[in-house]
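Entry, Tuesday afternoon. Goal for today is a structural model of the target with pyridoxal-5'-phosphate bound, before we commit to ordering more compound. Inputs were pasted exactly as handed over by J.K., no edits. I checked the ligand SMILES twice against the vendor sheet because last time a stereocentre got dropped in transcription.
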Amino acid sequence: MEDSIFLSKRDLPARWYNIQADLAKPVPPALHPGTGKPATAEDFSLIFPDPLIEQEVSTQRWIDIPEEVKNIYSLWRPTPLIRARKLEKFLNTPARIFYKDESVSAAGSHKPNTAVPQAYYNKISGTRRLTTETGAGQWGCALAFASNFFGLECEVYMVRVSYDQKPYRRSLMHIWNAKVFPSPSKQTACGRALLEKDPDCPGSLGMAISEAVEEAVANADTKYALGSVLNHVLMHQTVVGLETRRQLESIGAKPDIMIGCVGGGSNFGGFIFPFVFGPENEKRDIRFIATEPTACPTLTKGPYRYDFGDTAKMTPLIKMFTLGHNFVPPCIHAGGLRYHGMAPLVSYLQNEGIIEPRSYGQNSVFEAALTFARTEGRIPAPETSHAIRAAIDEAIRCREEKQEKNIVLNFSGHGFFDLASYDKYLAGQLDDYEYPEDRIQESLRELPEVGE
Ligand SMILES: *Cc1c(COP(=O)(O)O)cnc(C)c1O
């Protein structure tokens, strides 16, 4: 069996898969933040272009990928699916471990899969400037990369702790012509209000979203782009799962366990959605494992409730697993997993018992990352390493139970900009952080009383 399964350019998916077509019940609608009534297309049109609003609520199963988008995708797609044979050998497991390598994009993660179509649909809808937030910097890089192809201006509000910790992500954004502000910033009214309360505020994704949305609402030629959570974002990411499916088919393999890390849920959703109701899962026997940090345990500790996507309560209310819109997670190194909420579509599957959530502390995650780097050679992003931790644990279980299973994980990004975190781990200076239960309860008391 070949260890790297490549597809040819001809095999680039022609359509995205929309899982909303196959759900038994519709996902609960987004609600207007002021009235608590279902949000209308007009509510969204202040911040998103029409084609993306249509995709957000569409129940059409397949949506064509525009030629212009495929053309840019083909710079790095299809991405390889790689058998981690050296890791298997090291673990002495009968399981087969595969990883889908999304780190090969220019921005180093899966995020350009949605940044490119979002920039494209904005361009054809007359948008001149895009605003967004970024946590660890990956999304900001992806949107800067995509905006640059279409001649759109791009403004990024970067969570302050990452702005300081990850200067090179900032450099990438500058190279691709974006403007970058540490958030909370003085650019916006909500940023200034936050700084007044706490001049040393480390920032959070919720705060940065408020700033980016404020800018988009205030300017007619400016729209906002979100890198995760929303239905259309997860749909764009299904290119990952669709390719994986073809690649496994090409070697006659069926996945038994599929694993991804979850921040807002986009790489995990895009990876598993084509399989959830797919023919290879007729018996509903594929296990889907979603991994998150103990420092931001949205799926493992949060309730399924309506909540705001941001701190300033400007976004629509969405029904999701949440730790509360005022939740500020500790400054762990997996910056991309520090979001308080979870994609409504991933939340829906979790509520139906279709996925298994799991949380890990930083040290066990970095231990897995080093095992991977020292066997397979690749250096994973700290976010991705949460998925690797679970894959290693499952492979060890296969060894103990003498079971040959196919474990497939989504390698969401590389860790080349996270080397300072690796240094800290190697020096024994990483803290494990379990978010205290009473602090979670405190944050949850501020959830809005709407919906059911
Ligand atoms: C952003 C990011 C994540 C988390 O975001 P999701 O929307 O949950 O996928 C995970 N891994 C990497 C490498 C990222 O850049």
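The chain has two domains: 15-65+111-231, 76-108+237-444.
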